[in-house]
Write a structure and sequence with these properties.
The structure is a homotetramer. Chain A has about 350 residues and is α/β, with parallel strands linked by helices. Chain A folds into two domains: about 15-255, Type I PLP-dependent aspartate aminotransferase-like (Major domain) (Aspartate Aminotransferase, domain 2); about 255-345, Aspartate Aminotransferase, domain 1, CATH 3.90.1150.10. Chain A has 14 helices and eleven strands. In chain A, the strands form two sheets. Chain A has a seven-stranded mixed sheet with strand order 1-7-6-5-4-2-3, with helices on both faces. In chain A, strands 8-9-11-10 form a four-stranded antiparallel sheet. Chains in contact: A-B, A-C, A-D, B-C, B-D, C-D. The interface of A and C includes residues 75, 93, 132 and 313 of A.
Chain lengths: ~350, ~350, ~350, ~350
């Protein structure tokens, strides 16, 4: 019963199998291998983006930070939600890779900000003096850090504001599969067709070992990116194994099956919690549940080995309800959800 | 017959197996898992260094560049051989990670520099003005870029010079296993007992998928390294799979068996080339052969599909001998060496 | 009637004279000159800090950003007020120089934060994971961006919290003279005796051409700073002219006379505004007045050429009072204050 | 008799006067003042470049390093002479500001490299893998570190090679005035008409207090440079004083008069040394003399207080000739040259 994160779980068997399948014989290093060629093509096809530049890296922090460095100068302003992973959870990797860009946090309910808040922030940055830095890019997370999703029209509204100011729109898709599954959307409709310029398409949280794709829908934006990735120490010499993971995920729609599984578990968990006297802090739209749990339910669950995070790592006052984050994944089993709900209900 | 590099070959079956073996169940992220604990301990034991701090990253460039950033300020001078990977082959990753440190290349035969050359360079740096930057660290590669090895007494002589100037000694051991195997040395004797302060212990070139260990023999030198690695996007969330690779390599001495295999193939190749009318540019001491091949032998080999690099990527004059680099690996087969030698001999 | 900033005014005649006075003959470059030696000694004496390391740079942004780089690693957390110049007004120079440190803004009334808020923030940073970065330093501005001052006991309370967590305390003293004058305090009592570890002592806003002193009370903290300053392009070859400015300011207490003059003008301005029907947003404690002005008073003043900033650059609603910032300086004349007050009163 | 450097001398009286002349009254900060406007225009006119972007900074290191950051990504290759100031004497400021660019030193007689050497280096960089970084820019120094000059046709030949590879050409003109004076050339002919894209036009070594101009002949190349300069802490709030220095230099041709004076002194010194039994290492073409002096002449001069650098700071063997660098400046007096020559001749 581990709901701490989607990254506490292992690698999907088909992904592991793909590593074995490409293991035979010598291949060119640093991406000059047929597996990488095939995997890059597969993502272009999946996203219906024949001209896109697709590159693989091992971690989400690397993917996001490299994109920030690619799209923002050192004196750039990067607009994101105040809960954004790039702002809160990456040890200032974007600042490091970009050499000083300023993350400008925007607030907004349920982990999302809207076009009005963005327009206002951009306007301020534009009117500002040299002291304020220069507007550089906009970043949204989908699914968000609160497990909610921006739908295509919401993305498009933000893209319109960004583009009117000449700024590219980045989507941190560490849980992109969960967003697509949750929205019942189409990957192209949710990204470039809505105005996303660069997408980080997560693999690790969705069954890969350690793999993410960075996708530049406009190849001109990828100029020099291969050097940047190399200089960052993010290019595998045996690149085929990075590509093989991502390839395994898109073959036969595995990525979406896994995300649907995770999302379904979260939905069931959310409903069960409400029935058990808890309440949801935000709606469950992907694979995360943010809930208020009665104190005794929480204590019972913990005592029986359920693992999850108290939100904001705050110690709750005795007897008071606690706010928790529960994350499901491709590997979450039915019985784990059942067991947790039983515990919460005191059954 | 691919002798282009040791990284064109795949992953050793035992390493792949180790990935499967640790796949079951949920584990803590970012290194808080039992596999990582076990693997770090295994390297401390292997190196007879119970206090050492051991950390894993995926690429050699990341390992080296992070160490440079850890040991040198932005205004530091880093002494290395002019052929060093950190100076020539990492897209200035050390400069990037350290934010500007100056790589000061030293010359010396067979990919090695000696204590006198080092002392002279350090003396110049010390006498210099602010304009010259400040002496920061010394880096050697073992086995070297020329496939030669520094023995323990050679390392100790350099360490003495470095330490007298207050500088730490880093060993880039992307092919450390090949050096240990070639020298018949002991890992501890070749490193901390000879004065090495930080070792990058390569896994990828020796049968891993993508894994290197960074080992700080003095834990005080590792202060803050975990943050640095995180900020660099070099921490896997599913860290167990990085650790499992490195653990598989040290269990039952696999790492040394594989390196001996590679070295033996190189030795046989070198001897065969001499018998076939070629000549060695440097002695074969690890898993690389640098040789002058008669023009017709080279053309025959290439025509029949042998893959290897012309050294310095220079186009040879027609009819003239060519200088080539041939790299063997854990996966190089007896018959591949035989076939290449047959081709070179015109048999 | 220019109250836009203290940097719109020129250079005090004694400072200009000092440039001429040191102009004769050849002197050593890069600080190896007697003027620099004398000026550094003068600041050590002024601050009663015989062991302090004193260095001069030309701009406040350089002074602050170099100190941030000196005291924080790239993965550090720098605590400051949300209105701090290093956070809001330096084009992310601290992030650039430190290569990615995270400025963590604290809120608090009147441009100041207190020990409880600081302790809470530090506690969070300490409890956090690698994702949050590592606690590195605390920075306060005195006089603050709101023209208020931290007194010695307030500084000491913050220093205690910082030091208990092992963090150094930096004071951005771009308007340090105004704080000392406003508080009637002693430079030593307000800095190292209260626990300040590094002080940026401003000259430019107080009558210099372009000069600031960076003062490390513990010489160990200055290790390598000369290289850092050189690498930043912040070392004058003709260093005597930088030193001469700062020397002129401390001779015969000029710095304090100028600050008292500026503060007195601000005090008179503040009182006059209240009499004229305006109100003060914060008390006037140094050389800045933040006030709400009746709409018609503001329009009259502007129409007659008074220059000052609307606060937050917000366009006021028609007829509504406006919030303005008025800055006085060593060069503000009595009649300018009188004229502005007359205009505001409609006299 | 100080021939150590051109920066040991003071500020020309007309430059000092210019500081006083612009001291009256309030002016806009950060460059929004009429002196800056006038000075920028004066340099555009001097260089017959009406569209050029002109910006002022205080030090040559800042000027060069900011340009490197402007023209090269972190993974760029910057081609320069092995004696170049940016490579040898700026504490790796270009690497720091560009965040890792690789300075690739070219050799060549008399401090200059030719188009063939440049073409060969660029070809290598272009053919290289990601490991080598990407060709980014070419930098030449004029007058060179050896006091020689590139004439317009030499510059044009290098510019042609650079531009054919798509690379901009930067000229480090810390001693640009001396080059113009030495060549009897025209500033436009020696720069943009010969293909220079960005010029650092030195003021400090030629009588300014601390001032250099950075000139982008194509305004598109200056995009974002103002932010970069601000983030670097290189923007004076009282910018008028930086501009006033540079303005004073160009008014009435002062810059050229001063350079001619310095060059004439060097020429006379060089001729005198040859007559005194010494020999020139390179021809005297600007304001530096590199000479081999008989041991006794050198000892006599030193004993009587002559100040200059032994070249490469090497201690000469007793009785052997020594190689020295002698630098003249706008402030070098006739009698100083006479006195030194008398000493060398043993008169």
């Amino acid at each position: 019963m581990n709901f701490a994160s989607d990254n506490v779980h292992g690698v999907h068997p088909k992904v592991l199998q793909a590593l074995s399948d490409c293991n035979e014989g010598a291949m060119g290093s640093y991406g000059a291998d047929p597996v990488t060629v095939r995997a890059e093509a597969a993502y272009r096809e999946l996203l219906d983006a024949p001209d896109a530049v697709v590159r693989f890296v091992a971690t989400g922090t690397a993917a996001n930070a490299l994109v920030c460095a690619q799209l923002s100068p050192s004196f750039g302003r990067i607009y994101c939600h105040e809960s954004a992973h790039i702002h809160r959870d990456e040890c200032s990797a974007p600042e490091f890779y970009s050499h000083g860009a300023k993350l400008v946090p925007l607030s907004g309910a349920q982990g999302k900000f809207g076009p009005a808040a963005l327009a206002e922030a951009i306007r301020f940055g534009k009117a500002g003096s040299l002291n304020d830095g220069r507007n550089a890019m906009v970043s949204i997370t989908n699914a968000t850090e609160w497990g909610t999703c921006y739908g295509p029209s919401e993305v498009a509204a933000l893209a319109t504001v960004a583009h009117e100011a000449g700024l590219p729109l980045h989507m941190d898709g560490a849980r992109f599969a969960n967003a697509v599954a949750g929205l019942g959307s189409d990957p192209a409709a949710l990204t470039w067709q809505a105005g996303v310029d660069v997408l980080c398409f997560g693999g690790t949280k969705n069954g890969a070992l350690a793999a993410e794709a960075v996708i530049f829908f406009d190849p001109a934006r990828a100029d020099g990116f291969d050097y940047r990735r190399k200089q960052a120490g993010q290019v595998y010499s045996k690149q085929r194994y990075l590509a093989a993971q991502m390839l395994a995920l898109v073959e036969d729609g595995l990525w979406l099956d896994l995300a649907r599984h995770a999302n379904a578990a979260a939905t069931r968990l959310g409903q069960g919690i409400e029935q058990a006297g808890g309440s949801l802090v935000v709606p469950v739209e992907a694979n995360e549940v943010f809930a208020r749990l009665p104190s005794d339910a929480h204590e019972r669950a913990r005592a029986h080995g359920a693992v999850y995070h108290l939100w904001q790592d705050e110690l709750p006052a005795p007897g008071e309800p606690v706010t928790v984050r529960l994350v499901t994944s491709w590997a979450t089993r039915e019985d784990e959800v059942t067991d947790l709900l039983d515990l919460l209900r005191g059954a």
